[in-house]
C-alpha cells in the first residue's frame, strides 16, 4: 500500500450470504488486506442499482468492488448474474464518461473465501495504485439538486 | 409503445454546452417502459454526466426530474420551476416529448437524449422489436395480423421475395421472414385463400411520404 | 484486522460507523407477517452427530426425519473401538442407535438420498430418493450431519507391504486381540498426506489417536518399542495428559520436518529412517509394523448437498458455518444448521456437543408455531408504478403480480427479499424494506462527505412509526 497523505478509497458492495461473511471470516483469520476498503452490506448483489456504482465514483471513490456469490450459488437463484449485467452496463458508462472501466469490478466469492476476498481487494487496490487516484478527486464538491415536481 | 434508446455519453457531451446548468428530464410513460428515459435512466445518465464533467472539466451542473408525460402541457407545467433554473434541458422523452418541451419554452434549448426508434413491443427481457411503421392505412387484417410493411425488409405486399433462408429474412438474418410468419398464421386461422388476392399498390401518401400528418376530429373541436 | 496499521484501522472504523449512522437515520420500523412453522426437523446423516441431533430434537417432542445414505446407522463411529477416555465405544454406539431406533418421534429414511431442497425456514420441502422411488417430506429446520471419510494414502509403502497399516486398522486389531505382542518395534508416522498442498488443513484427531493406540500397545506389552514420528503433537485440551502418560510409558516421540519426511524401506525387513532436527544423525528403526495417521477427508457428496441447500463449503470440502464465533452451528441461510465431521475434523465428544448445539439452535425455530418473517420484503409505491411489469419479469420467485388496478403488487409471502426488482424498476417505484435506495445513497454520500461539507437534510422516513 502506498502511504501517501490522501489515501485512495475502495468501496466494496458485499452480499450478506457470501462476501460479507468472507470479509468477516478474514477478520477472524486475521488476514491482512488493504485498509482503504469500505464495505457496504447488501442482501444480494441483485439489490444493487447501477446508480450506486456511479454515485460512488461521482462522490470520489477510486475503485468499486461488487462481491457476490459464486455463479450458480446465488441464494436468490440469479441475483449475482443480474448484478454482473448491471456492473457491465455501469463499466460501459464509466468508460464513456472518461473513467477507466477497471475501477469497477464484479467478483464472486463463497462465504468461505476469506483469502479469495482479501485477494480481490488487494487486486483492486493494485489496480487503483496503477491507475492513480480517480481524476474526479481533483474537484471534490458534489453539486446535486434533487427537484420534486 | 414508442421504443427509444439512449444516446451514448460521448454523443451527449458533444451536444451539451460546457459550463452550463443542465436539467435531465425524464418521461414516465413509453420510454420508462422501454427502460430508456424513466426516473432510473435519468438518475443513471445524470450521474454519468457529472462523472464526465468532473473527469474532463466540462463545468456541468446537472439536476434531475421525471414527469408523467412530456407530450402533454399539463405535465410539462410541473417542470416549469426546474426548467427555468437551468440553461438547457436534456430531454429523455421521445421525439414528440422533446418537441413539446421546446414549443413550451421558447427561449430554452432542448436536446434529445434518446434516439426514438420505433413502435414496438418487448419480445423478451432486453429485446424490443418493431411492429408498426405508422403507414397510415392499416392492412393487418389482410395478413393475419402480421405487418408486411414493417416486418418484411422489402415491404412486399404480394408474397415473399424468395430470398429467405430457413425462415430467416434475407436482409436481417437475425429476424424471421415476415412472409413465413404470415403464411403459417393464415394457415392456422384457415385463411390461406387471402394469399391468392392481389393487393393493389399501396397509398404511401397516407404515410410520412405525404408530408407531416395531422388528424382533425371535428366532433372534438370546440 | 489491519493490526499492522492501527491509525488506518481506526479511520476505517470511524467511516464505517458514519455510514451506518447515515443509514440508520433512514431506517423505519418493519412489521412483518407471520406464517405457520412445520414443527418437524430433518437431519441429514445417521452417524453419531446426526443421531445425537435427532435424539435431542425428538426428546423435546419434535418429530424428526433422519435421512441416512447407507442402510445402517452409526456412521464412522462403527469403525472406532475405543477413545482416549473411554475403553469401549461399541456399546455406546449400539446404545445410541437403539435409543434412536426406539424413539417414537424419529422417522427413519435409511438408504435414502436427498435429491432436492425447496422452500425456506419453517417450510422446507425435501425430496428423497429411496428404494427406487421418490418421496417428499416437509420440515421446518434442517441439520446437516453428513460426516466425513478417513483419508486414503499410497505413501510409505501403503498397499505394498503388509506391515504398513493405518491407525484405524491398528485400533481394530488391538481390540480384536490379533495384534501380536512381542513385536520388536511399532513406528507411527503422523501427518501422512496432511498439512501439505493437497490437504492443507490439520485433521486434529490423529495426534490423540496415535497416543491412544501407543498407550494401548504399551499396556499390552510394556517392553514393546513404540515410536511416533511427528511434525507437531497436538493432543489438545485435557488430552495433553495422555501425551504425558505416553512419554512416561516409554513411547518415543521423534520430530521430523515436512521437507525431510521419514523413509520406509522393505529391503532388509521394514526399516524406517528419519532425519530429525533434534538429532545430529539420521535415525534408523527396524520394525515390523508401520502405522500411518492419514487424517480426515470431507465427504465426497458435500458439494452436491451444498448446492441443493445453497450453503457454502470451503476449499477442503467441509461445510462452513455462518460465523466462526457468533453463529458456529448454523448457516447464513436461515433454518439450516450443521454439526459433526461435515463441518470439520474433530473428536467424538466435540461432535456430540456440536450436534446438541445444532439441535438446540434448530429448536429455536421448531418451537415456534408461527414465525415472524417477511418484513424485509419489497413494496411497490402504487402511485409511481407505471405498469410496465418489469418486476414480474425479473423476480426469480414470481412474487410481483398485477393487481385489480393493473398495477404491480408484491405478494409478501412469496418475496424472499433479494431486491432484484427494486434495483430494476425503471420508475424507481419499488423499495426493498430495510435496504432502501436512499439508505444506500446516503451511505455513499456520508463516506465521501468531508467535515466541512454540509450534511444533506435528513429525510424523515415516510413509514416512521410511533416510538
Q: What is the string of helix and strand elements of chain B?
A: EHEHHEHHEHEEEHH
Average predicted local confidence, pLDDT of chain B:
95
Biggest sheet record of chain B: 4 strands, parallel
| Spatial sequence of strands, sheet with the most strands of chain C | 4-3-2-8-19
Q: What characterizes the major β-sheet of chain C?
A: 5 strands, parallel
Beta-strand proportion of chain B? 15-25%
Going by helix content, strand content and strand pairing, the class of chain B is alpha/beta
Which residues of chain C sit in consecutive blocks of at least 5 with pLDDT less than 50?
459-467
The counted number of beta strands of chain C is 24
**Number of distinct helices of chain B:** 8
The largest beta-sheet of chain B arranges its strands as 3-2-4-5
DSSP summary: helix tally of chain C: 11
Computed over alpha carbons, the radius of gyration of chain C is: 29 Å
Q: If classified by CATH, what would the architecture of the largest domain in chain C be?
A: 3-Layer(bba) Sandwich
Helix content of chain B: 25-40%
Greatest chain-chain contact: A-C, 53 and 49 residues
Note the gap between the termini of chain C: 37 Å
Q: What number of domains of chain B?
A: 2
Low-pLDDT stretches of chain B are none
The fold-level CATH name of the largest domain in chain C is FAD/NAD(P)-binding domain
- Tell me the span between the first and last alpha carbons of chain B: 29 Å
What report would you give on this structure?
- The complex is a heterotrimer of chains A (149), B (222) and C (467).
- Chain A has 149 residues and is of the alpha/beta class.
- Chain A has helices spanning 19-28, 50-59, 79-97, 114-131, and strands spanning 10-15, 37-42, 63-68, 104-108, 145-146.
- Chain A has a single domain (10-138), classed as Rossmann fold.
- Residues 1-5 and 139-149 of chain A have low confidence and may be disordered.
- The mean pLDDT of chain B is 95.
- Chain B has two domains: 2-117, Rossmann fold (3-Layer(aba) Sandwich); 133-199, no CATH class.
- A four-stranded parallel beta sheet of chain B has the order 3-2-4-5, sandwiched between helices.
- Chain B starts with a strand and ends in a 34-residue tail after the last helix.
- In chain C, helix 2 (48-59) crosses helix 3, helix 2 (48-59) runs parallel beside helix 8 (348-366) and helix 4 runs parallel beside helix 5.
- The relative contact order of chain C is 0.15.
- The model of chain C is unreliable at 459-467 (pLDDT under 50).
- Chain B binds chain C through residues 28-29, 32-33, 35, 38-41, 43, 66, 125, and chain C through 384, 386, 388, 390, 393-394, 425-428.
